[in-house]
Amino acid sequence: MQSDLGDCFSEIKKHLMQETKVCFIGTPCQVYGLKSYLRKEYDNLVTVDLVCHGTPSPKLWKKYLDEQKDKYHSEIDDIVEKINYIGLEDAKDFIEKMRAASFLPHTNIDNYPTVKQKLLERGLL
Asked: I need a labelling partner for 36 at 20 to 30 A (CA). Which of 10, 16, 28, 116 fits?
């Protein structure tokens, strides 16, 4: 479902300006939106694009949920929709480990030359 990032971009920028390491995980459109908002590269920002085949509108999502309720004759108790922000200031080495582990072991890093270059520059490959 399309997510509401609220003030996520401004919060990220605030942390970047304070030189806090930030990892933003989102769809390619959200990552592009963040980078457009920031208007410059930050060494303390890591972005991870999730594979996206399109996200349904809130109206389509509601229709799907209504169909599931009818199909199973039951109410839906809870749905976890998003995590907008995770503070990493208390886990300084976490972000470095995450950068190195961002790709599954079977991923061919050569298919991602810009990511490979960034990881090489930072000594993570």
From this structure: 116
Distances from the Cα of 113 to the Cα of 17, 26, 109, 118, angstroms:
28, 20, 7, 9
Q: How far apart are CA 60 and CA 41, in angstroms?
A: 35
pLDDT in tens, 83-96: 444 455 555 555 55
Closest C-alpha to 21, from 46, 40, 48: 46
Instruction: Indicate if the alpha-carbon torsion angle 14, 44, 80, 9 is positive or negative.
Output: positive
Residues belonging to the chain: 125
Longest CA–CA span in the chain (Å) reads 55
Q: Which of 105, 99, 100 is nearest to 25 (CA)?
A: 99
Buried b (16+ CB within 10 A) or exposed e, 33-69: ebbeeeeeebeebbbebeeeeeeeeeeeeeeeeeeee
pTM of structure: 0.47
